[in-house]
Amino acid sequence: MYIIFIELCGLQKYPFMKNIFSIIILFVSIAVLGQQNLSSDSIRTYFIDEIVVTSSYKETNPLQTLPGSVSILSSSQLDGMQINNVKDISSVVPNFFIPDYGSKMTAPVYIRGIGNRSSGQATGMYVDQAPYLNKSTFDFEFEDIQRIEVLRGPQGTLFGRNSMGGIINIFTQSPFQNKKTKIGITGGNYGLFKANASSHNLINKNFGISLGGYYNHSDGFFTNEYSGRKADRTDAAGGKLRFDWKMNDSFKAYLLFNYDYTDQGAFPYGAYNPATGETAPVNINDPSNYMRNLFNNTLNLEYKNEHILLSSTTSFQYLDDNMNMDQDFSPEPVFTLNQKQNQQTISQEFSIKSNDKKNYQWSFGIYGFYDHLTTNALVEMKEGGIEIIDNVFRSLKQMYPSMPTITVSDDEVPLPGEYATPSMGGAIFHQSTYNHLFIDGLSITAGIRLDYEKDELNYDSNSKMDLSVRPTMPPITIPMALDTTLQGSQSMHFTEILPKVSLKYAFNKKNYVYASAAKGYNPGGYNVQIFSKLSENALMYQAMAKARLNPPAQSITIEDAAYDPEYSWNYEVGFKGEIIKGILSTSVALFYIDVDDMQLTKFVEGGEGRMLANVGNAVSKGFEIELNAKLATGLYAGINYGYTHATFKNYDDGENNYNGKYLPYAPQQTLSISGSYVKKFNHKWIDKFNCFAQYKGAGKIYWTEANDISQDFYGLLDMKAGVSKGIFSVNIWTKNLLNTNYNAFYFESMGNAFFQKGKPLTIGGDLVLTF
Fold first, then answer.
1. What average pLDDT is seen over the chain?
2. Packing angle between helix 15-29 and helix 2-9, nearest 10 degrees?
């Protein structure tokens, strides 16, 4: 199997990776049996040797013995590793990567090469068991997080749509778990200032309340040469209110309200010169910013006795945002985009599972959602954009000398549109686990989900353009008004059956091997950004028709508004356990993913937007390893490494054959090396000293399907150290301590390439009071 996997992944080309894989096999081969017991709803982390309470309301396996790849980040890890939002998890978890888009408007998640950088998503996110159905809601400030779980590989059986790459589960603090009041102030270079406060209190033994809020400001990292001001300043604020109620030992509930506000400069992209390999500073003349209001409301009810656990989760999410983008990213007035989203989502899930010690464990559930998203988009062609249109007419005049001379007489040409994309869906699901099948330690888990979704598109776009027409004879100028309307509706629906099966053999309660196969699925949807190009084409068609010319064939049509579902089969084998009891633990996984009808982001001709299209088949294969060690009292270390070889298997766009090319935006490697040291003192001038360090990196990353532009492997070093005395804690920290120069995101517009640079060295300090 070792030789076969080396060949499958192409690791023979990389001797150092063969050595890493050999070490992994050696570790697994000498795994030491025997392990101390932990409760079924808790898991040990080696970061500061803490026990993290976990629970699942529908999984039939305890999280610490799950037959699949899962990484747990505790609150202490989040604090030490300076993970303040979902993008900071990049590379911390093996084969997990989020490129920095340049604003909170989207967080494109890639797991094992599976992901999408524009509309649509391949990784689901849940906060306190409530689904977040839009990537525009993923990037928010982490406050009072109890733990984060990252499950890699398809999770469709229990979580359904948009979980082909995996799932991010985020859980906030309960007043029953954390009875503290905390006040913190943070300051740093680049004008960083943050203030936050939270309080968790028990009113009585049955009722608790959590209240928190924060404010975050940054002057920004990149200067716009055109204006001389920072291009990416940020102001964010938010608050949370949570009520927890334990009626008795069997019934509990929580009600959560959360609000997040963002006002930021956005998209600080610099022009890239392929000849020199240099990225120019930001230099744009039109505003680029992003403003968002995000409100979430979750009600969870849970009933448990010695036989069953019954759970209900009701959620409502409200998103209202406003994005302005200088879409030519230059100091010239060419064209801009103003996009406003308003989204209201409601979901409901009921689940019931067994809660006894029998060998057979089962889980059933039903889920439904309704999502109403309205997008108002206004593309404005300015002087430079109008010049491009005039150049088209000049070229036509050269081809057809008898045609009139046509020029645009408007100062600006607006291309507005309103698009409603409501969707609704439902699912029923089941999963069973049978332990000690035939022999002790052998178990099988099988699940299936029937998933249904209906999507609609209602579009209304009216565009106008005034022309000056000067015929050859007589030589007079005639005004011509163009007026075109694109109006209509489409709908489509999808029904999918998503199976999953896994086998596990446990040597004991903590050491086991497993193998699994699962089907993944991302639904289809609609591209609304192509309508500005469709409107522009419609105006040009009308002008050419009036000039009695035959318009050329168009590269995109109204049929391109829709894209079809994407499917995958994921095969995985792995090992989890302790190599040296109480000192060294490991998790190893090998995976192979077949993707059909792959959804890929493509740029609209002319640069006025992007679209998802189904482009063919792909394959992703690789491995990942997590090693965690307790080196001495208070001293801990961890190494997480992921390798992904994700390539097109069958993709030909009619002009280019991309078979064998690497998938864009998916790094081939991710690496995280972390260490922590905690020293407690008795009767000293300080109570505790703590120090955390982490080196994390990603690469090589190809930014295009042609693999002609890329980012080599790069690494970032972060450090944090502090002391505590009584209620006071003081920390100093750095991010990107080595001031590594790298590109964080790639974008194209009007045939030009642009990069967002990675953030430079930042340094600061915290003062925290904990009561």
1. 90
2. 150
Q: How many CB atoms lie within 10 A of CB 725?
A: 13
* The residue count for the chain: 771
- Per the DSSP assignment, residues forming a β-bridge with 704 are none
660 vs 8, higher pLDDT: 660
Residues 6+ apart with CB under 8 A from 284: 224, 226, 231, 326, 329, 330, 331
Which is it for strands 166-172 and 617-632: parallel, antiparallel or unpaired? Answer: unpaired
Of 269, 245, 240, residue with least CA distance to 257:
240
User: Sorting pLDDT into bands at 50, 70 and 90, what band is 546?
Assistant: confident
The number of beta carbons lying within 10 Å of the beta carbon of residue 603 is 18
Residue 451 identity (one-letter amino acid): D
The number of beta carbons lying within 10 Å of the beta carbon of residue 452 is: 17
731, 758 contact by CB (below 8 A): no
- Fill in the amino acid letter for 308: I
Give 290-310 as a DSSP string: EEEEEEEEEEEEEEE-SSEEE
- Angle separating helix axes 383-399 and 531-546, nearest 10 degrees: 40
What is the per-residue pLDDT across 419-470, written as a single tens digit (0 to 9) for each?
999 999 999 999 999 999 999 999 999 999 999 999 999 999 999 999 998 8
Whole-number Å distance between alpha carbons of 501 and 532: 45
In angstroms, how far apart are the furthest CA atoms of the chain? Answer: 101
Tokens representing residue 540 in the block: 């040009």
DSSP string across 481-547: EEEEEEEEEEEEEEEEEEEEEEEEEESSSS-EEEEEEEEEEE--EE--TTHHHHHHHHHHHHHHHHT
**Residues 24-38, mean pLDDT to the nearest whole number:** 38
Per-residue pLDDT at 734 exceeds 90? yes
Q: Are 758 and 745 in contact (CB under 8 A)?
A: no
- What is the bridge-based pairing of β-strands 714-725 and 688-699? antiparallel
Read off the tokens for 45.
């982390």
For position 16, what pLDDT does the model report?
41
Structure confidence by residue, pLDDT tens digits, 49-89: 667 777 788 999 988 889 999 999 999 999 999 999 999 99
Distance CA(27)–CA(577), nearest Å, equals: 10
204: CB partners within 8 A, 6+ apart: none
Q: Closest by alpha carbon to 111, among 649, 702, 642? A: 642
- Given a contact cutoff of 8 angstroms between Cβ atoms, the answer to whether 429 and 157 are in contact is yes
| Distance of alpha carbon 211 from alpha carbon 197, whole angstroms | 8
pLDDT band at 549 (very low <50, low <70, confident <90, very high): confident
pTM of the full structure: 0.91
In the chain, DSSP finds a helix count (H) and a strand count (E) of 6, 44
**355: helix, strand or coil:** coil
Backbone angles phi, psi at 531, to 5 degrees: -70, -30
